[in-house]
Amino acid sequence: MKSSTVILYPSPGIGHLVSMVEIGKLIHTHHPSLSVVILIIPAHYETGSTGKYINTVSTTTPSITFHRLPAIPLPPDFSSDFNDLAFGIPELYNPVVYDTLVSISQISTIKAVILDFYVDAAFQVTKSLRLPTYYFYTSGASGLCGFLYSPYAHKTTCKSYKDVNDFLDIPGVPRMHSSYMPTAVSDRESNSYKYFLKSAINMAKSSGVIANSFFELEERAAQTLRDGKCIPEGPTPPTYLIGPLLASGEQVDDDDDDDEHECLKWLKTQPSKSQWRASG
């Protein structure tokens, strides 16, 4: 009988990688018979130091296996914009990811694939292989509400957020001015906007969405997701709030300790789980 495996495919950034590793730990805790394989895509941009962290996790958590994908040279004219790199590089890796998943499936049954929303391009691969595919939204429930709602907002207006100059009504999120929207999605003609929009469209078609939050922290947003109000014209995939995902047991390497803010330095000197109380 074949073993069973869950494939995790994070963006190479350290913040996304650490959160995905914590998902892997949760999966193994609740389903110890499952193997967890994390695909590591080579970074062609600054991602934070990940090598030491990966080596430490490999030593301390043998239930998680890292599979490094081979380096692929970028086309000479490839954009240097961060979002073009973050979304575009995984697209170049689709043939490699396809071969990797096929190879793994020959020795183990792939029960599910969990994609970081930045590696959205791989959804076409997992879909072609008919693998249950989940998305991991590394931020909270409120952000996920806006993310899932964005295709409907795109359809119902012809203006970019930067040109709206009005307050937005996004299900699950307090009214906010259009000028507060992230720069990456403020211009509907930009590549980054189109990448995020496509990721949101595919996310709605997935087997489910995982977010780094919990109900008590974001009750309004969490209930909105449960009620399926973020996708007005179609079904909402199951959403799972599994946070807070916090690194445990491994030291995340930081090459910039000397430049660390004095507030963080002070916090690190305090006892574990200690509480600050105001005087007077």
Task: Give the tags.
single chain; 280 residues; alpha/beta; Rossmann fold; seven-stranded parallel sheet; two-stranded antiparallel sheet; 38% helix
Can you walk through the features of this model?
The chain is of the alpha/beta class. It has one domain: 3-Layer(aba) Sandwich (Rossmann fold), CATH 3.40.50.2000. It is built from 10 helices and 9 strands. The protein has helices at 14-30, 51-60, 82-92, 94-105, 123-128, 141-156, 161-164, 191-204, 219-226, 262-268; strands at 3-9, 34-40, 64-68, 108-116, 133-137, 167-168, 176-177, 208-211, 239-241. It has a 7-stranded parallel beta sheet, sandwiched between helices. Strands 6-7 form a two-stranded antiparallel ribbon. Strand 1 (3-9), helix 1 and strand 2 form a beta-alpha-beta unit. The mean pLDDT is 89. GO terms for molecular function: glycosyltransferase activity; UDP-glucosyltransferase activity. This is Putative UDP-glucuronosyl/UDP-glucosyltransferase. Keywords: Transferase.
CATH topology: Rossmann fold
Mean pLDDT: 89
Strand line-up across the major sheet: 3-2-1-4-5-8-9
Strand content: 15-25%
The domain tally reads 1
CATH class: Alpha Beta
Give the ordered list of helices and strands: EHEHEHHEHEHHEEHEHEH
Query: Helicity range of the residues?
Result: 25-40%
Shape: globular
Q: Structural class, please?
A: alpha/beta
N-end to C-end Cα span: 66 Å
SS summary, helix count: 10
Number of strands: 9
The CATH superfamily title: Glycogen Phosphorylase B
Major beta sheet, specifics? 7 strands, parallel
- What would CATH call the architecture? 3-Layer(aba) Sandwich
- The low-confidence runs, each spanning 5 or more residues with pLDDT under 50, are none
Radius of gyration from the CA trace? 20 Å
Keywords: Transferase
InterPro entries: UDP-glycosyltransf_plant
GO molecular function: glycosyltransferase activity; UDP-glucosyltransferase activity
Protein name: Putative UDP-glucuronosyl/UDP-glucosyltransferase
